[in-house]
Amino acid sequence: MSETTARRGRPATVDRDRVAATALRLFTDEGFGNVTMDDVARACGVGRRTLFRLFPSKAAMVWGGSGEARETIMGALAAAGDVGLPEALDVVRGAFVASSTFPPEALEVTRQRLCLIAADEELLSWGTSSIGTSAVLVAEFLERAEGAEQPSLRARSLAAACAAANFAALVWWAQHAPERDPARVVEEALTHLLDGARTWAAQA
After folding, report:
1. What is the spatial distance between Cα 20 and Cα 113, in angstroms, rounded to a whole number?
2. What is the sign, positive or negative, of the torsion defined by CA atoms of 112, 118, 123, 126?
3. C-beta of residue 152 within 8 angstroms of C-beta of residue 142
4. For residues 81 and 163, what is the distance between their CA atoms, to the nearest angstrom?
5. What is the CB neighbour count within 10 angstroms for residue 40?
6. For residue 12, what pLDDT is reported?
7. What is the largest CA-CA distance in the chain?
8. Taking a C-beta distance cutoff of 8 angstroms, is the pair 94, 194 a contact?
9. What pLDDT digit, counting tens, does each position of 144-187 carry?
10. Which residues contact residue 121 at a Cβ distance below 8 angstroms, ignoring those fewer than 6 apart?
11. 35 near 58, Cβ under 8 Å?
12. For residues 23 and 40, is the Cβ–Cβ distance under 8 A?
């Protein structure tokens, strides 16, 4: 096989993380709304078609990692199995903390993503479904722990509050305390929230 044939048969591999990091720098420096997909493609040295194969939109570049966070939460809840309501509250807190635990090399990129999301309504709106999915997973887990025979207003309200508090804590970390461990910031925020739910757990 000739070298030319090999090149044609094996498209060059594009580093998805590198592309996302380059896009984040552009969005941060130029403003999310001022950067096009073509701008990102040129900065990364890739074709437009290749870029869209990796990321369907600019927002998808910024919200990268939300799927992994959701899977972490799902895994933690599944691993807990059937538990009572007081224990379930601790499981929920641990699930969100685990989803907010990032390797050191990912901290700065994560911080940039969160700052961009918090500053742009379009970006925030795009990711609302991801936050909502996490809340649904937690609500179903709390309903099972509560033994609810029908959708529980308390479980769903608390789940939504936990998902919102998790996101708010991460944004606070990104904007105001990047020197801190984001997982510990999330743990602190959820502890404040869930301490108030202990009364419900005791009465259920």
Report:
1. 10
2. positive
3. yes
4. 20
5. 22
6. 56
7. 74
8. no
9. 999 977 889 999 999 999 999 999 999 999 999 999 999 999 99
10. none
11. yes
12. yes
* Length of the chain counted residue by residue: 204
Residue 204 pLDDT level (bands cut at 50, 70, 90): low
Of 102, 100, 89, 167, the C-alpha closest to 132 is 167
CB 100 within 8 A of CB 170: yes
Q: pLDDT for 67-123, tens place per residue? A: 889 999 999 999 999 999 889 999 999 999 999 999 999 999 999 999 999 998 888
Amino acid at site 178: P
State both tokens at 6: 């090999």
Q: Kindly report the pTM of this predicted structure.
A: 0.84
Is the CB of residue 168 less than 8 Å from the CB of residue 189? Answer: yes
Q: Within 13 A of 76's CA, how many CA atoms are on the CB side?
A: 23
